[in-house]
Design a protein that fits this description.
49% of the residues lie in helices and 9% in strands. It has 370 residues and is of the alpha/beta class. It has a 7-stranded parallel sheet. Strands 2-3 form a two-stranded antiparallel sheet.
């Protein structure tokens, strides 16, 4: 295959949120991930562990050298350790709700919480109602350290426009079964939990925006969520709990047509598409059972990142990869629309090879021509 031609056509296909009417082929968005370096380079390491910046830089550079030969492009960011800036840790939304973020070996980060009864949840929500969130999330040394960093580097903290979705946050704080039972046993507390999540999201981002040097008029637009556990809710439950948080954040941060309104949920959550369709989302990445034509019915303006199963890509079975990429290319063309961005329906895991990416590219060239 011609790498130069593929990447030229792909750059065109990526324009206008992958809806470019002049594009000649379906867009492909798989640019791999930092965790893929370990298997590809036969290196030991925890793909989900704490990042060692100098080592990640060295691994990414070696990986990109190999990628240029196999797929014709450098794919991963190469952040020079000298340019890396570490700000003091600002507490996150899970901590506001009484949880603790933990890091395991080969498991990544998870959020753990002691709150497991409606009474304990109600006490925590009352505590948050009376909490000075700004004082709680900013560390004591924040003003001094952030000022020193700015004076030395000219850099300020980046705004945050992506968070764990409301349902996944709630199941981490309160438990999956507990949250489902709460919707039936204490519907008002259930809705209050949702309202408090929205309130905390807006307040945390207000503080960080200010520390990043923005005002309400100059702050960047767009917002996205990663809400794998939303599939646990019925449409009625989701309308009471998840939907108000997305609606509130999109109204606040994405008021204009081109502003990012995105949800990632790599789970079987097709039953929620009619509700999500009312939010005029322009980007999504859903589970591998949620197909292109079904998404398009409900989200006509969304770039669809998917729908190849992550384990199909990670298992490096060329025939299965071709089958799923061909399916998605033919599906989007069958809808008479554009906006498909070939991607995994979830994360790109360690073990996914550059040779498999080449198979994806070849399949797009064969079956993804408009």
């Amino acid at each position: 295959m011609s790498f130069d031609q593929f990447w030229k056509d792909n750059d065109d296909a990526q324009k206008e949120n992958c809806f470019n009417p002049e594009a000649t082929q379906v867009a492909m968005g798989i640019l791999m991930s930092d965790e893929c370096v370990y298997s590809e380079l036969n290196e030991k390491g925890d793909p989900w562990g704490e990042i060692d910046i100098p080592r990640q830089f060295e691994l990414n550079k070696r990986y990109n050298d190999k990628a240029e030969k196999i797929v014709g492009r450098r794919l991963l960011k190469e952040i020079d350790p000298k340019e890396h800036v570490a700000f003091p840790n600002i507490k996150r939304i899970g901590e506001v709700f009484g949880g603790q973020y933990l890091m395991g070996v080969n498991t990544g980060e998870w959020l753990e919480s002691p709150i497991n009864t409606p009474e304990a949840l109600e006490r925590q929500l009352e505590k948050i109602d009376n909490l000075d969130i700004e004082s709680f999330i900013l560390p004591e040394n924040w003003e001094k350290e952030s000022r020193n960093i700015y004076e030395k580097t000219g850099k300020k903290i980046e705004p945050r426009r992506h968070i764990r979705g409301p349902v996944t946050l709630a199941t981490s704080i309160f438990g999956m079964e507990n949250l489902v039972f709460l919707s039936y046993d204490s519907p008002e507390l259930f809705k209050r939990f949702s309202r408090t999540i929205l309130k905390v999201v807006l307040e945390i981002n207000r503080v960080i925006d200010r520390e990043a040097g923005y005002t309400s008029e100059t702050a960047p637009s767009g917002f996205s969520f990663a809400d794998d556990d939303c599939n646990l809710m019925t449409p009625e439950m989701y309308k009471d709990f998840g939907y108000p948080v997305l609606k509130g954040c999109f109204e606040h941060y994405s008021p204009n047509p081109g502003d990012k309104r995105y949800q990632h949920s790599d789970s079987a959550m097709a039953h929620l598409l009619p509700i999500l369709g009312t939010l005029d989302m322009n980007g999504c990445n859903f589970g591998p059972t949620v197909m292109v034509d079904e998404i398009r019915k409900h989200l006509p303006n969304a770039r669809i990142d998917g729908c190849m199963a992550p384990f199909t890509f990670m298992n490096n079975n060329a025939d299965e990869i071709r089958k799923e990429v061909k399916r998605d290319c033919l599906s989007i063309k069958g809808t008479g629309t554009r906006g498909l961005n070939i991607y995994t329906a979830g994360s790109i895991n360690n073990g996914s090879s550059l040779d498999s990416l080449k198979v994806v590219m070849e399949t797009v060239q064969e079956f993804g021509q408009y």
